[in-house]
Amino acid sequence: MAVAWQRHPADGVGILIRATDGGERGAILLSMGRSPNAADAAVVQAEQRVIALIGACERAAAEGRDADAARILREAESLLPKHPLVLHERARRALVGGDPRAARDLLEQAVALAPRHLPFWLALADALRVMALGDEELAALEKALQIDPSHPLALLRKGAVLDRLGKRRSAAMTYGNALATINPQSQLPPAIAALVAEARRRVAEGAGELDAFISRRVDGLRGHDNDRERRRFERCVDHLLGRRQIHEPRPSLMRFPFLINWEFYERSDFPWLDALEAETSAIREECLAALAGDAAGLRPYVTYRDGVPLHQWQELNNSRRWSAYFLWNQGERVEDHVARCPRTAAALGAAPRVDIRGRGPTAFYSILDARTHIPPHHGVTNTRLTVHLPLVVPPGCRFRVGSDIREWREGRAWVFDDTIEHEAWNDSDAPRAILLFDIWNPQLSEFERSLVRETTQALAEYFEAEGMPSMEL
Predict the structure, then answer these.
(1) How do residues 248-285 score in pLDDT, each as one tens digit?
(2) Average predicted confidence (pLDDT) for the chain
(3) 450: alpha, beta or left, given left = phi > 0 and alpha = psi -120 to 50?
(4) What is the value of pTM for the model shown?
């Protein structure tokens, strides 16, 4: 029986086998891993045998049993010498043996017969790379990407050939597309890991080149912008170049729409910060005295009850590694604590603190123990913002909101949106202490605040009617 192979005109995934036996012709559409549309038992059986033999041949070659691999390949050739898998394996052996031209010829036959089989195009691109035929290699990789536009290896190889062709900008973009398809936590084979490392290097390099190109165009416009405008534009460019992610608020309870989202807010929006910072020494003194004289008043900040999913709080739940000395707690004034800290309480009086019965204000000395990490998390609502006034900050302490990482500086306050993912580190050998409190988001009008106030209280009352603590809202 003679067997000739050609591509099926209507379905490039399949392979049309025309078998001639005693003058009788029959057409059978076979697909890699698919059932044929028609039945020709002899040819089907032959192909199944070839598929099994090629698999055995590849395993033998991978294990270094070259004689066995050659013998198995000869058996497959005797059955269907023009089967694409046979051609592919012959091409692989030719390429390893130093004959890329023969490999190319064989692989061109294979892709003509099975144009939707992506590995054949990658193998053809390999042969063309060895032959230093960059444009043809790129064309082969484009064919592979037509089959699977997000194939990571095809994208990595496309980036490499674009680099070799001198198309550095296109290469950097293609490398970026490749990295977007790869889980950063994946354990990659060494050869692939090397390609990924090169892709990361080239993406960073390309971002720098594009940044310089953009800067040359916009530098003439600088000098007319203010700090806020400059910061927004720089974040826009950072996101464009893949250097920073733009984090959105993800409140666990209430998101008020149409507010401008800042990770850290501009100081100019809070003119009372200067007066607060002027009291830093007195506030620090009261904090240290309270902690020394009323250690029992310090309580774990994270206190979930039994039966509640802890998720990232498993380690810190009911732990004094992150603890709080409350002056106000969920709207309740802690009288004996406030009595110990009158200068702190007075300094807080100028801030537009949240005033919701059972929910705010909240203000406390936040103590983060040595070698402690507060995991990434989100706050309850973006109708409020959070203020930090650093009091005791040993070296090795830092804080992240979204993609902005900063180090606390004693006496220098900041305001941030705690519904944007944030986390904190104390990598030192001593505790860190800050004054932490919440304020209204200044973008809310007085009327909007009154609506939020009533809605929040209604939520608490609604669920407390069945015994759910309002702290869990």
Answers:
(1) 999 999 999 999 999 999 999 999 999 999 999 999 99
(2) 89
(3) alpha
(4) 0.74
**Distance (Å, rounded) from C-alpha 73 to C-alpha 69?**
6
DSSP three-state, residue 87: helix
Report whether the peptide linkage leading into residue 361 is cis, meaning its omega lies within 30 degrees of zero: yes
Q: Which residue has the tokens 């009617």?
A: 465
The SS3 call for residue 15 is strand
Residue 175: name the closest of 147, 204, 146 by CA.
204
Write phi, then psi, for 336 (nearest 5 degrees): -70, -30
Encode 270-289: b = buried (16+ Cβ within 10 Å), e = exposed. beebeebbebbeebbebbee
Q: How far apart are CA 304 and CA 453, in angstroms?
A: 24
With beta carbons less than 8 A apart as the criterion, state whether 263 and 416 touch: yes
Contact 65, 57 (CB under 8 A): no
Answer whether the bond into residue 431 is a cis peptide, omega within 30°.
Answer: no
Contact present, 360 and 353 (Cβ < 8 Å):
yes
Whether residue 473 contacts residue 373, with contact meaning beta carbons closer than 8 Å, is answered with: no
Q: What is the C-alpha separation between 362 and 419, in angstroms, rounded?
A: 16
Q: Is the pLDDT of residue 37 over 60?
A: no
Task: Give the pLDDT confidence score for residue 75 in this predicted structure.
Answer: 95
Q: Which of 163, 193, 166 is nearest to 175 (CA)?
A: 163
Q: Which residues contact 126 (CB under 8 A, 6 or more apart)?
A: 95, 103
| CA-atom Rg of the chain in angstroms | 33
pLDDT exceeds 90 at position 4: no
What's the N-to-C CA distance of the chain in angstroms?
Answer: 76
Map tokens 């293609």 to a residue.
Answer: 174
- Three-class SS state of 451: helix
Among the listed residues 371, 433, 429, the one whose alpha carbon sits nearest the alpha carbon of residue 408: 433
The three-class DSSP label of residue 356 is: strand
Element (H, E) at 299: strand 299-300
* Sole residue written with tokens 């988001």: 441
Pairwise CA distance, residues 283 & 389, whole Å: 9
Query: Pairing state of beta strands 2-7 and 14-21?
Result: antiparallel
pLDDT in tens, 229-251: 888 898 999 999 888 899 999 99
277: closest CA among 162, 394, 412, 133?
A: 412
d(CA 417, CA 388): 11
DSSP annotation of 34 reads B
Distance between CA 65 and CA 58 in Å, rounded? Answer: 10
